[in-house]
Amino acid sequence: MAATGENNLENTGNFLHNIIKQDLGEDLSRIKTRFPPEPNGYLHIGHAKSICLNFGLAAQYGGKCNLRFDDTNPAKESTEFVNSIMEDIKWLGFDWEDRLYFASSYFDRMYDCAVELIKKGKAFVCDMSAEQMRQARGTLVTPGEESPWRNRSVEENLDLFARMKNGEFEDGAKTLRAKIDMASPNMNMRDPVIYRIAHMTHHASGDKWCIYPMYDFAHPLEDAFEGITHSICTMEFEDHRPLYDWVVNELDFEVKPRQVEFAKLNLSDTVMGKRYLRNLVETEQVDGWDDPRLITLSGIRRRGYTPESIRSFCDMIGVSKANSVVDTAQLEYCIREDLKPKTPVVMAVLDPIKLIIDNYPENKTEMLTVENHPENEALGRREVPFSRELYIERSDFEENPPKKFFRLTYGMEVRLKGAYFVTCTGCDKDGDGNVTAVHCTYDPATKSGLDFTARKVKGTIHWVNAATAVPAKVNLYENLVTADETAENGYALNPDSLKVMDAYLEPFLKDAERMQRFQFMRHGYFIADSKHHTKDNAVFNRIVSLKNSFKPQ
Ligand code: ATP
Ligand code: MG
Prior knowledge:
binds adenosine-5'-triphosphate; alpha/beta; 553 residues; Rossmann fold
């Protein structure tokens, strides 16, 4: 298991670390955590933070972390989501071993717990409608009103609750409520509903149940059943903690789990909520849950991110109770740092125009030997064909260049990476005045690898041999959303989030396998698409550009 979280936990006296030490004393290996996803969508980068934290803490102290599907709400859950969640957690590098649990498998025990509360006089069946309950709830400054059904006898409550379970009542006709305190300053303690009637088919338990426990009742029970010591969750549950503790205390569990909150991860210019992502997928505004523009784990996997880079990102951002927005540039920094030392550097022309070397022999092709990485010699070398006609980037030629343009323009000499110096002599144009090809001459004495010091050039450009070039679709991405104050959630889809280039790649890439990564010189890191790439129809996605706007401290 990857020991994530080590550095920032050890070095910053992270508050979670302190709480755990305080609670467990010498025997830190007693720690038991859980990751409790609701199977109603695919996991996103925010969940990765929670996964790294829960599995990471347990691993660090030699304890255990459970995977528990929190499937107590039958409405939106499915086995597709269950499977994708397991795949994503494994991909991130974590292992729940034999500790896979489903909250729905506890429905019988939860029902028994509710019965126990009724017997203790701590829960009652209420006939108020949702609207009546809302009205009787009071406000932050005024107490609520007690339900007229609050003082039903234990016998009557037991009978009604059993009949709720047996399907005698319509959805919403009755609820089971905890009997706590309608005057509590904490609204969550004002006789909260703990069971509701819902005639729905559950993805695991089928039609066995028509009553379902509410999250605030179910979650502490699940934790207690599994012997969880620390139930780590996000800040919005802070106000629910008194209810969590109430449930655990009223039911006399041997190990009383403790809820500890931390701040959610937010990323700049990114929308993470499962509801939003689900809408994008269902309305086909993106290419499935694994669209490389999405911040789902399956999306960033297809985009080309490595599990190592996600784990190091989660380490780097640390854990706190203060809400903040992390700059997406920091995530990009982590993937660049991970890929830089181990990814071969190759040449690809994304917006091609022909370069014709007029003084190079017409039927000649020479094989040039080029290193695969400027520093990592273990990545070896490769042969790159060179001949009279090449492709270069359209933007590497300018008829009327701005100042300090050190690429191709009339009379200017540049280095073709790994090959020769060439001097621009002119260009061809079509009837509309668009440049269709660039002409140049080469100097045979400047061949790469020769000890050539007579003159220097300021620019080096990449190229691809025209006759052997591999055509490819190359996907370039921008943020999927841009801020839009007029939109309901503050975001609008960015119409430029995907740009598809008809590119040419050097022949070395002909045998690239799906998910293989390369640096395309001057363009960034790319991956062969896991869905659409084939040997005959190459498709590459840009993982990240080379431009870095984040500086680690
Ligand atoms: P979303 O708000 O995206 O729909 P959720 O909280 O409803 O997510 P769950 O499946 O309930 O999704 O989440 C599983 C675990 O992941 C929970 O413990 C939750 O607190 C945690 N989690 C969800 N989003 C984030 C986030 N942005 N940062 C850190 N942890 C998160
Ligand atoms: Mg949730």
